[in-house]
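Q: Structure tokens for this one, please.
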Amino acid sequence: MMSRLVNGTYPDTSKLIPTSFSVTMNVKLNDLYNAIDRASLLTNESDKNTIKLESTENSIKLSSNIPEIGNVEETVSLGNSVEDGFRIAFSSRYMMDALRSFEGEEVELLFNGEVKPIILKSTDDDSLIQLILPIRTY
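A: Here is the predicted structure, written as tokens:
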């Protein structure tokens, strides 16, 4: 075995997760997971399994498409109303892996914009936080 000490400082990880958010959504965990699972049927590895999320006042719309086959649109109702509508894209595989780690009935989706990370928090356990990076689709 061989090891080597690397000079330098470790990045400050406390600044990775923001403390304030512009948009907060509460959604049922099973409904969100099942909608992402169905929407991911028409994604492919070359596009990084990209799904688009678009928010409305009382629901979110998940969509994906493959031009040769067709498109999928799923709607999930929110537990709270959201004033700011926005669109963001992410990897369905990473999001489903993150959602599998949660227990309970609801999960919080926290956003700060279309190019900032998505934060997932459990409504039951504050110690469990997942961070998903968005994918630029333009």
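A few notes: Helices lie at 29-39, 92-100. The domain at 22-132 is CATH 3.70.10.10 (Proliferating Cell Nuclear Antigen).
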